[in-house]
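**User:** My hope is that you can spare some time for a protein that puzzles me. I have put the entry right below:
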Amino acid sequence: MEAHSSGPQQSRKRRRDASNGEAEDGETAGKAPRCTMGLRSPAPFADELRPATAPYLRVTMEEAHRGTPLDRPVRVYADGIFDLFHSGHARALMQAKRLFPNTHLIVGVCSDDLTHKFKGFTVMNEDERYDAVSHCRYVDEVVRNAPWTLTPEFLAKHRIDFVAHDDIPYSSAGSDDVYKHIKDAGMFAPTQRTEGISTSDIITRIVRDYDVYARRNLQRGYTAKELNVSFINEKKYHLQERVDKVKQKVRDVEERSKEFVQKVEEKSIDLIQKWEEKSREFIGNFLQMFGPEGALTHMLKEGKGRMLQAISPRQSPSSSPTREERSPSPTFRLPFFGKTPILFRSSYMHVLNHLIHVLTVVHAP
């Protein structure tokens, strides 16, 4: 069992500069207690923790799955390069953390020298990779300068119960599987790789779209020397940038033109609808006034009847009234009929009859 400090868990403040993670001047250097820091602080580095004094007794797989006491978590170790730390790394560490009910996850990160020797050049340096892993929520402890091959002495020093890694044989350093002796010892706990994401995939995207990223960083103020870009390529990127700006302006003009045309069409449709409504209203009013059954037709018919009544001679009654019964009002006579010649009176009647005929034909239904 491991020894733990009594009393409440002490808060631990770690401030490191961007280069080597050393404590700042004036800060008291000391060992932090061996305990999980939780989610409020980065995971501590193993060389900054107080060494355990209790004897190292490994738990079996059955005991680990059954659950261990709170003061004796199952210590699981996972190692890697963790360059360009991404979700695939985080998922692998999450699986390692969830292997057992009570797990203390220790993550080993290899140094630059070891990585460049056995795997190749990295994008992030070792301090950046150490810091990235320490800020993963599933990590309880980080081992800097982790070994490429795990030795019994290393496992005993860090009191490791199980080693977590994906089950695919990892060939390196002249070995077909660097975890073979861990598997033979029954200390291997497999995890699953996340498909579709890896450091190599990210680097491939950057190499594939190198021109795009180079142009973007030139825009952000990086010099051609910092980007290792030649003078000719620098001028080419600036020219491409200007061409792209012109293309973007053309696309913006096209979009605005489309919006304008769309607005004009909408307004045209609205105007046409209003015109149709007004035209129907106008036609209805016109027909109501001038149509076959319109008000003007009725007015003309009434005028025609009154005119005919006015110009037609009154019929003689069947029996002549007596002198006392006759109306004292004078009889209606056309003007000038009494005094005008017979020829003029016949012409006047012919004109009136012709006018009445024309009005009757024009307004006939």
Remarks:
- The longest strand covers residues 74-80.
- The beta strands are 74-80, 103-109, 141-144, 162-166, 188-191.
- Residues 231-290 form the longest helix (60 residues).
